[in-house]
Structure formats: C-alpha cells, structure tokens
Amino acid sequence: MTEVGLTCRVFIATSLDGFIARSNGALDWLPQTPEDSPDFTDYGYQAFMNSVDGVVLGRNTYELVKSFQPWPYANRPVVVLSHHSCNVPAALRSTVTVMAAEPEQVVDYLSNQGIRSVYIDGGQTIQQFLRAGLIQDLIISRIPILLGEGIPLFGPLTTDIPLVHQYTRSYDNGLVQSHYQVG
C-alpha cells in the first residue's frame, strides 16, 4: 500500500502464453469490440473503470489509445510516462499530463490532486509499478490463444511478488479472468 492511500490497480488481457500485444504492438488477437459484435461482453471493464479516478499509461499504450474514438478516459486525469516528446492533442490537454518520472513521483503527483484509485496500463509501466511495490491488485484476463512471441506482461524482478487469489471467472468463449491482490 502506498503511504498516501492511493490504490494502483491493473486490468489487462494477455494471451495464454503471457503476451499483452504482438511484437509490433498489434492487438488484433483480442476479443471483439462492441462495434464488431452485437453480443459483446466487456468482462467487467466498465465496472472497473467506474472504480478508478485516474489513469497512468506508458507512452506506447497512450499512442495506441489516443486514436480511440471516443477518448476512453474522459473526465479522468491521465498521466503518460515518457522520456521522449509526446504529442497531446488540444482536446486532451486539460486532462493528459506527460511526465518523465519514477512511479513513486507519479503516485505523489496524483495523490496531491486528490486521486485515490488509479488504473495502471502498459507492459513496461505495470512492470515499473510492480517493482516499486505500488500495485495493490491485478485483474488479468487470459485469452485462449498462443502468440508464441510478443510484448510480455511481466518482466524481470529483483524479488518475488506474492499474490493472493481473490476469484477466477471463466466465460463461454474460453476467456479466464483472475483477480489477485498483491501480497
């Protein structure tokens, strides 16, 4: 738990072999979107989003998401972590902040804005927050597909991170979603 009381949470999908995207960043293997399928299921994503009041994205994730219409994080402050220049369209400048900062600094910044629950997204960003001990819970949806290679959700750690299983749900299409609390 962070000292300031801010909760950092993860909601993410992986292939069965642990990849969050293809090597080129493509997400074409993910289940259908509402636009693609009349019987679309959001697997609890909207309920999760309703439970957070801020978002932290890695730059690569931001670059992908900023093309989504409508912008999925309306009315929530978004921090984009990047050590490179990052284009923020005029329509998003009131809520999107680009920072080159360590996870602890991001948590302090958001906590000082009154944020209490943050959605952490992007492989490298999730890994950084995990290594810093700042993630409190993870909801991981495993899609029944093997990609063989891609961008992994988890990376090297300096120490084990124990997880406490909260629940697991399975869906008719083979998707299995597990919720874990850290430590």
CATH architecture: 3-Layer(aba) Sandwich
Derived from helix and strand composition plus strand pairing, the structural class reads alpha/beta
Low-confidence stretches: none
CATH superfamily: Dihydrofolate Reductase, subunit A
Question: Average pLDDT, to the nearest integer?
Answer: 91
Report the principal-axis shape: globular
H-E order? EEHEHEEHEHEEEE
The number of domains: 1
Task: Please list the strands of the largest sheet in the order they lie side by side.
Answer: 5-4-3-6-1-7-10-9
First-to-last CA distance: 10 Å
Number of helices: 4
Please name the CATH topology. Answer: Dihydrofolate Reductase, subunit A
CATH class: Alpha Beta
Helix content: 10-25%
**Global Rg:** 16 Å
The largest β sheet comes out as: 8 strands, mixed
Strand content: 25-35%
Number of strands: 10
List keywords for this structure.
Dihydrofolate Reductase, subunit A; single chain; 17% helix; 31% strand; RibDG_C; 10 strands; two-stranded antiparallel sheet; 183 residues; eight-stranded mixed beta sheet; alpha/beta; Dihydrofolate reductase family protein
Question: What do you see in this structure?
Answer:
This protein has 183 residues and is of the alpha/beta class. The protein has one domain: Dihydrofolate Reductase, subunit A, CATH 3.40.430.10. It contains 4 helices and 10 strands; from the N terminus they run E-E-H-E-H-E-E-H-E-H-E-E-E-E. It has an 8-stranded mixed sheet. Helix 2 links the parallel strand 3 and strand 4. The model has no long low-confidence stretch (mean pLDDT 91). GO terms for molecular function: 5-amino-6-(5-phosphoribosylamino)uracil reductase activity.
